[in-house]
Amino acid sequence: MPPPARLTYALLWLLGRLPLRALHALGDAVGWLWLRAGLREARVAAVNLRLCFPDQNEAQQQALLQQTLAQTGRTATELCWLWTRAASTVNPRIEVVAGEALFLDAIAAGKGVLIAAPHLGAWEALNLYLSRTAPVAILYRPPRQPWVEVLINRCRGRFGAEPVRAEANGVRTLLKRLKDGGVVGILPDQQPKVGEGEFAPFFGHPALTMSLFPKLAQRTGAKVLFAWVERLPAGAGFAVRFFDRGPIHDTATLNGAIESLARQAPEQYQWTYKRFGIQADGAPSPYRRG
Questions:
Q1: Helical spans, DSSP H, in the chain
Q2: What residues are paired with 50 via a beta bridge?
Q3: pLDDT in 10s for each residue of the chain, 290 residues
Q4: Where are the alpha helices (DSSP H) in 134-223?
Q5: Which helix (DSSP H) or strand (DSSP E) does residue 122 occupy?
Q6: N or C: more exposed end of the chain, with fewer CB within 10 A?
Q7: First-to-final CA distance of the chain
Q8: Which distant-in-sequence residues (6+ apart) come within 8 Å of 228 by Cβ?
Q9: For the whole model, what pTM was predicted?
């Protein structure tokens, strides 16, 4: 690995020696700092919650904002544990509590499995579960810094997952994996570039949504499942859940399924992401200050 990646991994490894419960407490502190200092994460999350939960009063939204920032902080700090601890330590703490038969039966059918894993809960833990269960290809958007990409791919692929870039060659790789009966995982609620998606309702607002996911489903006939991993309290571990939401014909049905999952645990959804940054009518972004 490049020197910056080695140094960062060493820091992750050192922090990863802490118990998961301690790392989650550290994540809570990070979330408190975001809120206290009014940093970007707090501002973006506040806008999203106002847009998506208009029926909540100010006190309810503030409480949800605090919970959201704490959970997002935990998402960051728990990586030190998930990415560096041995499989013998990590695997017992990631347990399926719903729908595992859906996943295993889909693998056995041999027609390919397309997993939609929104930014909900501990999605990095889901990657590790999928990796230990079946050969899996994970689509990702390359970060700006090449050394960061090297680091992420090493950590995500350490249990056998195949990282696949979100580009033309990567799409061909995903098609082949699905047609060969393999498993592909995609984070379907990332905002694509203009021209690479369509606007579809999300919590009642148009959101630019990737069209790749429904196209892969239709072109390959793979079984589509949704999955998310609940982060359990007190560092107890992670609970995996699989769901069958039926055929995903378009971006509207995709967003509808994502929304239904996000409503199961709204505090664990990544509201710090600028999901509505590009407006359908060319209007200013709701995240603009002033």
A1: 3-15, 20-37, 40-52, 58-77, 79-82, 87-90, 100-109, 123-133, 146-156, 168-179, 212-220, 251-262
A2: none
A3: 899 999 999 999 999 999 999 999 999 999 999 999 999 999 999 999 999 999 999 999 999 999 999 999 999 999 999 999 999 999 999 999 999 999 999 999 999 999 999 999 999 999 999 998 989 999 999 898 999 999 999 999 888 899 999 888 999 999 999 999 999 999 999 988 888 899 999 999 999 999 999 999 999 999 999 999 999 998 999 999 999 999 999 999 999 999 999 999 999 999 999 999 999 887 889 998 75
A4: 146-156, 168-179, 212-220
A5: none
A6: C
A7: 43
A8: 117, 118, 120, 121, 123, 126, 240, 241, 261, 264, 265
A9: 0.93
When divided into structural domains, the chain yields a total of 1
Which structural domain, as residue segments, surrounds residue 148? 3-268
Q: In terms of Cα–Cα distance, which of 112, 107, 24 is closest to 72?
A: 24
Q: What is the pLDDT of residue 27?
A: 97
Residue 274: inside a domain, yes or no? no
- Residue 139 maps to a domain: yes
Q: What is the DSSP string of 220-273?
A: H-PEEEEEEEEE-GGG--EEEEEE------SHHHHHHHHHHHHTTSGGGB-TTS
Rg of the chain on CA atoms, in Å:
19
CA distance 89 to 269: 26
268: nearest Cα among 239, 246, 289: 239
Phi first, then psi: give them for residue 195, nearest 5 degrees: 100, -10
CA distance 149 to 147: 5
Pairing of strands 205-210, 197-202: antiparallel
Within a domain: 282: no
